[in-house]
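Data deposition worksheet. Section B asks for the primary sequence of the deposited chain exactly as it was used as input, without tags or linkers unless they were present during the calculation. Section C holds the resulting structure in C-alpha cell form. Section D is free text for depositor observations; keep each observation to a single sentence. Incomplete worksheets are returned to the depositor.
Section A, Depositor: J.P.
Section B:
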Amino acid sequence: MKIYFAHGKERGPWGSKIKRLAGIAESLGCMAESIDYTDLRDSADLRVERLVNVLNNEAGPFILVGSSMGGYVSLVASGQVEAQAVFLLAPALYMGDDYQSKNYPHKSRHIEIVHGWSDDIIPPENSIRFAKEADCTLHLISGDHVLHSSIETVEVLFEQFLKKVLAG
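Section C:
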C-alpha cells in the first residue's frame, strides 16, 4: 500500500511530522510518498489538481494523509479518486476564499481526523462539523495547530488507523 502525504501551507514535503508518520507507515510495510507543494504555497486548489494528476497514474491502492492545507487537499482529492482511506491532521476545512470547496464529497469508507483543542489557526469546530456530516471518527486531543506537543498521541492514532485499514 502506498501512502501519499500532503504537507501544510507553511511546511515542506518531508517535515518532522511527515517523517515520523512515514516511518510508522514503512514499519507496517507501506511505501511513503510526499509531494512537494512549496511552489504552490497559497493555492490549495492547484495542490488538489497536482495530487489528483499524480493519483490518476497510481496503479495500486493508496491512502491519503494531509495536514492543515494538506488536509483540505487530501480530502478534496478523495472525492475525485479511489483512496482506500484518508487521515487528516487539523484540516483546513470551511475556510476562506483561498479554498474553493466548501462541501466535501468523498469516496473513502475510512476517514479519521485528529485536531488539537488549542488550534488557533483552524478552529476545532470545523473538524467537528465535517466529522458530524461525514459520520467519521474524530480525535480531539490536547495540542495546537502543528500538534508537535502531541506527536506521540498522533503517532499512536495513525498506527491504529493504518492497522485497521490494512486489515481490511
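Section D:
The CA atoms of residues 40 and 46 lie 7 Å apart.
The chain is about 35% helix and 20% strand.
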